[in-house]
Every structure is written in C-alpha cells, then in structure tokens.
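Batch manifest, entry 17 of 40.
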Amino acid sequence: MCKKIVKGLFLLGIAVLYGSHGIHAQYKSDVWVADCGDGTYKNPVLHADYSDPDVCAVGDDFFMTASSFGCAPGLPILHSKDLVNWSIVNYALKKIEPAGFYSQPQHGKGVWAPSIRFHNGAYYIYWGDPDFGIFMVKAKDPFGKWDEPVLVKEGKGMIDPCPLWDDDGKLYLAHAWAGSRAKFNSVLTVFELNAEGTAPISDPVMVFDGNDGVNHTIEGAKFYKRNGYYYIFAPAGGVVTGWQVVLRSRHVYGPYEVKTVMAQGDTDINGPHQGGWVDASDGESWFLHFQDKGAYGRVVHLNPMKWINDWPVIGNDSDGDGCGEPVSRYRKPLAGKRFPVETPAESDEFNSRKLGLQWEWHANYQDVFGFTSDMGYMRLYGHILSADFKNFWEVPNLLLQKFPAEEFVATAKLKVSAKDDGQKSGLIVMGWDYAYLGVEKLGEKFVLGLTACKDAEQGSPEETAVLAVLEPSARYEAGLRPNYEREIYLRVKVEKNALCRFSYSLDGKTFTEAGKVFQARQGKWIGAKVGLFSVAPCGKERGWLDADWFHVEKAE
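Output type: structure tokens
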C-alpha cells in the first residue's frame, strides 16, 4: 500500500487524509476548475450533476445539498468558503427510506429537491419522495453522522419542500406537487409544522396557482423572509427551458405578487432556475442554481443577486427591467479574500476502509455488493442477474460517480476473478442508454467485449461486439473448480457532447481502442455516470472484481 501511495503522489499530486479508518487517497484533479485564479470564476462552478441544489450559510462556511433520487448514500453534503470552490464532505443519508423499497434500483424515485437550513444550532434537510411523502433529517455537525430520517408527512405527490422559521417562532413548510403522482401540478402550498419540525399541525393552503397560462410547472419552492416580506423562490416553465420566479407577500399564506427575476435571455445558458439564495458574510447576495446539460446532468451555476425595491434581481440585468440573465464569468464572492482551489474528489486509490465520497451505488448498499479493504483494493462481487434478464436497468450494485466535466478520461486498473462461465466485470457508462467494456469468462479464457444498450428502461436487449480473447493472468485451484483471473486496464475518454471512446490495455502503457464511439445519455432525472460493475448469470455463484485504482484525469 505504501508503494501505491508514493506512486499516486508522484503522478497526480494527491491529498492524503489520515484518520481512524486508515489512509484514504483523494486526488485533486483539474478536469474542471471554476476558480480562474484572478479573482473571477467561470460557470458552472460545478460541472457535475448536483441537481436541484440548495445552500445555507453558517458563519464563514457554506453548505450545499442536492437531489440524489434512488442513489445511495443520499443527500450529498458539499462545503465551500467562497461559493466557488467546493468539496464533497459527507452524506446525510446512509440509506434511502424506506430501506427495503430502495434495496433495488428505483430509477427517478427517492430524494427529490431537498432544502438545507440551519436553525437553533442544528442543520435540517427536508426533501420530498413523490411516492412516500415529505422527510426530514438533521444533525448538529454537518461533517458527522446525521440523525435517522423522519417521515414528516405521508402521502403521494408532495415534492420540493422548504421550511421557514418565522420571527414569532412558528414553522412553516412550502412545497410543490408532482403531477405524475398527485395527478395535478403547477401549484404551491404551505402548511404549519410543530415546533420540532416533525409533523404538520395545519392543513395545506394553496398560495400560488401556476395554471395561469404563464408559470406552468412551477415547483422547487424555497421559502425566505426579508424586511417583513415572505418570499418563495420557485422555477417555472420546465427543466430545460424554464425561468426563475419569485413570489412576495406581507402574509405567509398570501396573496403573493409574482415576478420573473432571471431568464435565459440572449445567453446560451438554458433553463437557468431552481436553486437557493444565500448571503455571504460581507452582506452580498448570491444565487446557486442548475442548468440542464443532458447527459452531463444538472450542473451548478453561481449568479450575483441584488435587491431593488424589495425584489431580487439575479444575474446581469443590462436593460434594467428587473429580470437578469445568467453570467458566464464574474468576480468571486468575498472580494479580496483568497481561498484554496477545491473540487469534489474523483480519483480513488481504494486504500481506505471507506469508499471515496464521489461514489454512489444504484440502490441501498448491501453487504453482498462488496467490500473495501486495507489490502489496497476494492472488492466488487457479481450481482446475480434475474432469470428473465434483459439489461442493467435491474442491477443495484453499480458503483458509479458523476461526470465531473465536459471532457475527461477515466482509467481503472482491475483484476477479474471468475469460476463460472458468464461471470462478467468491467467499466461502464450508465444512463437510459449505456455501454460497458466487460471481461467475461468463457471456458478457460476470457472474452473482452464492448456492450451497448439503447432505451434500457424500456427493456431493450444488450448488443455485444467481441474485441479480443484473453488468456488468464493466473489460474489456481479453489474448491471444486479452479478460479481464473485476468488483470486489465480499462479506460473511457469522454469528449464534448458526451461522446465516449472506450479502450483497454494489458500492460497499462499501450491502449487499444474498443469498438464504436458511444453517445452517453442521461439517466432518469440524473446525468450519465461512470464506474464499475460485476454481474453473474442467474443460477451461478458470484465472481468478483478487484479494483486497484480508478483515476480521473483531464483529457489531452
């Protein structure tokens, strides 16, 4: 393991974190850096799928969370000192609740549009699960263990909740409605919670109707109070092409005035909306929000915000009409202060007893998925496929991370182990369409193939192109049948427009291109992801994959 750490330090300039759980190597890459180094930043500040972001400020620290849907762990916690340089520091949810339901992939379900707030010494996150209701989780220390989640209000269709602690101590919750479950949408409602924030004490009141011929699909409510006004920030118009609306009233239940405060305008930044307002310690206001970029997911932008006549104006309002346009480059918050460049972790040496925080499973973790170790690798066991297997839409133990930039290269050093024919492991780009380089045991050899699937949710079959037949790296007796191993390096280069070029190497030096270029596609409400897999045919025992390392680097 020491040799591996020295190698990583030499090659990539790694930050090594020491703790009670062993050594965990996390690489700081430059695949996407928003901090321009001259007092300005470029958008997006996170070129990764942190969908539906929300933010709060506590002292000199900013904390952000985002939707995680059915991926686990859930509710990522990101930290920043300047709203530009972010690192991922924790997850608020170890498992998605109800845990049994999310033990299998539940694409597009789960954790929708959370809100994070700090109140009376504790951090609170509320989110809506469209199938089960509104949940809350809290913690005294955002870097530590969060409490078990509480089901605040059971029901279908309630999404995008946000709390507001009023000046008189009362607590209110605003939220939207999902038409797919409630069979209506485009309205916002508010109800009162008990002092603990764990249960409603009033019925919901409709405070805004977006069925006005203008603000259809209004959702994503964020609730604030300023200068005696109640404000609800909410996106309207749809994910790809929408705009940012703000509602304002002197009374918590309205009626509310409505104003569009940011739209695409003449920029190339589509659908700029849905996020959170936050004030920096110097009193300046900022707004973090997403932009839908297809296969790359919903990436995070930072825009300046100012107040004019008690209305917020977000972005650049060159014509003075009160509706701004998103900026591509701007001066950083907290002018005059300098902070280290930070980006969320991407590469992993698998030297720790804890997985790097960049990784999520496609369902709640189970022990049979695999194990970390102090032996310098991560063990991933083969998921046993169903008898009527069609494609990987059913596989829960996909170990994946977000695309971190428009262009990057991901390379993994792997060792495949198999006894039974059909056991297969490799490198995958996952979404509604997916492709993977897989190493499959066949007789006394391994077959390397590039597999692709289009429209996985619809049950479409996979198609595989055989690339090479490989001799085992090792064979040894293991019980009734021998075990075969194959060491290999697998790589995917992601280019603009999410074009993916796979390649492989037997020595880690010379790489051979593997089949056709694959066009990555987003998943259900999430961007495309890249990572590792291992599967076994129905009725067979599990083979496995040992991942020595996974490196993400800037594309040359």
